[in-house]
Amino acid sequence: MSAEERLLKLKQLQKKRAEAARENRQELFKEHREKAIGKEKLRQLEEKQERSREELEKIRALERGEDYQRRKAWDYTIEENEKWDAKLERRAQNRENAGFKNYSQMAEQAYNKEISQITVDKDRYKLQKAKDGHGTSGVDFHNKPSKEAVDTLVSTLKTGDSRRMKKKSKEEDDTDSYINIKNKQFNEKLNRHYDKHINK
């Protein structure tokens, strides 16, 4: 290794060291700020800064005679935009379906939610179907599901059972201290309101 190469290597190492020191210092400042302000307050401040930056961008775009929403849309790809539209559509649909109407609708919603979480390997299904030689008319009684499919089914059933058991045990614990559900909800509302003032 020549002297020039060693000098170049030394400069690279010095640059890396300076960069690491700068990053460490930034982390230290951030940690100190979090301790002094608190994480929640810091998050609120960052959100406020982001909103103010956005307002400033809107004002600048207005001064230039540009459409701010259109200008902002330039930052997103077509795929991101399609994902966002799909997300908004799901939100609207969820908002529409929110609330209790009847038990059959509630059961249908639970079923659809569980079905939406299932992933189906269509290629594997088609391959299995072609291999067995059964069309739509034949039924294969010897088909055995994979271990992963069985494990997924078992874990889904266990999580559902544990969720129901938690809810049931919580309801059993709470029934002794309240006259009825409305009384329980009212007491919880009071606690939420007054706990803010008491815990200060």
From TrEMBL:
Signal peptide: none
Major subcellular site: nucleus
Listed Basic and acidic residues bias regions: 141-150
Subcellular location: Nucleus
InterPro entries associated with the record: mRNA_splic_SYF2 (IPR013260)
Region ranges (Disordered): 126-178
Alphabetic keyword roster: Coiled coil, mRNA processing, mRNA splicing, Nucleus, Spliceosome
One of the GO BP terms on file: mRNA splicing, via spliceosome
Coiled coil: 3-65
Claim: Coiled coil is one of the keywords in the record: yes
GO CC terms, sorted: catalytic step 2 spliceosome; post-mRNA release spliceosomal complex; Prp19 complex
Keyword Nucleotide-binding: no
Subunit structure: May be part of a spliceosome complex.
Family: Belongs to the SYF2 family.
Role this protein plays: Involved in pre-mRNA splicing.
Protein name: Pre-mRNA-splicing factor SYF2
